[in-house]
Amino acid sequence: MTQPDEAFQKEFDAGLTRRILGYLRPYTLLVVIGLTTTLLFSVAAPLYGLIQRYAIDHALGPGVLKVGADLADRQTLYNVLVGAALTYLGLRFLDFLMRYASTYVIGLLGQRVLYDIRSDIFTKLQRLPLAFFDANPVGRLITRVTSDVDAINQFITAGLVSLITSTFLIVAYVVIMLSVSWPLALSSFLVLPILFWVSNYFRTQIRLAFRNTRLQQAVVNTKLNENITGMLTVQLFGRENHNAQDFDHSNRGLLGANLNSVRWFSLFQPAVSILGAVASSLVLWFAGRSILSAAGVENPDAVLVASGITLGTLVAFNGFVGQLFQPIQDLADVMNNLQAAMASAERIFGVLDEDVTIQDVPGARVLSKFEGRVDLSTVWFSYDQSVTADTPDDDPRWTLRGIDLHITPGESVALVGATGAGKTSITSLVSRFYDVQRGSVAVDGVNVRELAQYDLRRHIGVVLQDVFLFAGTIESNLTLGSPDIPHERVIQACKYVGVHEFILELPQGYDSEVRERGATLSTGQKQLLAFARALIQNPDILLVLDEATASVDTETEMRIQEALTKVMHGRTSIIIAHRLSTIEHCDRIVVMRRGQVVEEGSHRALLARNGYYARLHRLQYAQGDAAD
Question: What are the Cα distances from residue 457, in Å, to 337, 377, 460, 512, 539?
Fold first, then answer.
């Protein structure tokens, strides 16, 4: 996926723009209303100067109202003035209505698109295989759903609208200025090349400053995440002062980057204002020359009118020049907005275009009940997506190497071995979180690739070593929000694992709130809740336990063992445990080493064989005696 420093270099991309605009298609009516109202208030903007010009030249300008003019003439001029004022006010009121409608409709449109993109990303993330999350940090994915989507919203609600209105206004002002007085228009246009160069220069500098700010912000966010997440370690080892100094260094980097951005923004506005003042000065100079040239003429008014330069024209042009520079300046801002949107769009569509490698085949089978036979036949597997079936057998990237494992219905099988031996990989393949590169995995004689994923996994109860609890109540965590699970089944499962009494001791019992990741619960309590959660789902066949007792005390372990004895009866069970004492009762123990099965048999048989399992057993009990 695109890194931040690469993404901000992204220029305009027509393909990405079309995909962004594709989200506007369901809201065509809103788009039409938004653009229509936007263009209407844009049309009104150049007319204000023309109304002022008309009022001055026909009612207020020198030479219009002569000394001694009769009352009828004065009333006529008064009517002209009132008409111009009312027209001006009417246009301003229309401008108010159109701006309100445009802002509301475009804002509504942006929020709808924002909602759709967020929904699409979240839905896609739900469908992506675990291999994708192995390679992409959580923080990066959250950024896609938050700040990157916000950048698209800014492009639609501000950038796109500003691009249209600014372009229209520039064209409108140029046409009106040329039609009113082409000499004054050309004189004011002399600074435009300089303005475009200045805008482009500042745009580049502001973009680089903004990019550096985002990079420094990422560094600060990383420091914050590390320190807050690891606060226990920080305080335990007295690292507060050192970490504060380290954070201060990063924070100063962000401060410097922000000040640099402020500096460029502060220079940009005055630079444009100076160029606007130069343009206004040129207009005054050319108009002044014309007026002075006509001063010695017998009828100077006629000369000025013939040249198109009147007092009303001069006043209107001063307004036109200032108004012309604003959309040009806005276009420079739009380009920065556009570049940020392109970068964000590239990252967003990078997620949306990710291949969903684990998919149901057409007509995937749905089984109402599993008997519980599990067969891994000559399975070769690697987490590295570049590994294929043709990869040599001696490649170190293989996690499982030619595994043949056959489990009969109702049999309890324990997988043991050193960390990295491939135990968890087997359970992940049975649940089809990954697909094998060679061989096959089958349940009840059916290849898991041919089974519907939802149906397969709802028959498998899984308890992980690292228990994840959602923010909510105890009961919502046990049922995972399913309304079909009765409260009686929840209580029954909790009694099985010995956690019912603990829950009743909480302030609101089963309705007690669980903080993020169960922060207020002990490891043993969370583990027992995880057991109850698996049992509540009532898996028909498989109960896969992934090192579930590795982090609990002896008393809790005994409770879990008692529950397991009941739950495993009549069910196929695959148990992974570091504590060999927890799997002595299993029907069969499969010993793994470096991705291969090296031994299998009952606990007694493996000890009698005095092989690898026996050495692991002696080593573990020797460590236990030493600890005592």
Answer: 45, 20, 5, 28, 9
Helices (H), 373-466: 423-430, 453-458
Work out the pLDDT band at 430, boundaries 50, 70, 90.
Answer: very high
DSSP 72-84: HHHHHHHHHHHHH
Query: Which amino acid, one-letter code, is at 281?
Result: S
Report yes or no: 465 and 528 within 8 Å, Cβ to Cβ.
Answer: no
- pLDDT given at position 7: 44
Residue reference for tokens 């914050």: 224
3-class secondary structure per residue, 305-326: HHHCCCHHHHHHHHHHHHHHHH
Distances (CA, A) of 575 to 151, 461, 523, 543: 47, 11, 19, 8
Residue 615 confidence (pLDDT) above 50: yes
Q: What is the pLDDT of residue 557?
A: 67
Please answer whether residues 384 and 471 qualify as being in contact, where contact means their C-beta atoms are separated by less than 8 angstroms: no
Identity of residue 10: K
Burial of 628 (0-12, 13-18, 19+ CB in 10 A): exposed
Contact by Cβ (8 Å): 104, 161: no
Of 1.20.1560.10, 3.10.170.10, 3.40.190.10, 1.20.58.1480, the CATH number of 4-352 is 1.20.1560.10
Q: Which residues lie closer than 8 Å to 231 by C-beta, 6 or more apart?
A: none
Q: How far apart are CA 103 and CA 109, in angstroms?
A: 10
Q: How far apart are CA 578 and CA 546, in angstroms?
A: 10
How far from chain centre, in Å, is Cα 412?
Answer: 43
Lowest mean pLDDT among 276-290, 519-533, 545-559: 545-559
Contact 474/511 with Cβ under 8 angstroms?
yes
Reported residue count of the chain is: 628
What is the pLDDT at residue 507? 85
Tell me the domain boundaries of the chain: 4-352
Within 10 angstroms of residue 326's Cβ, the number of other Cβ atoms is 16
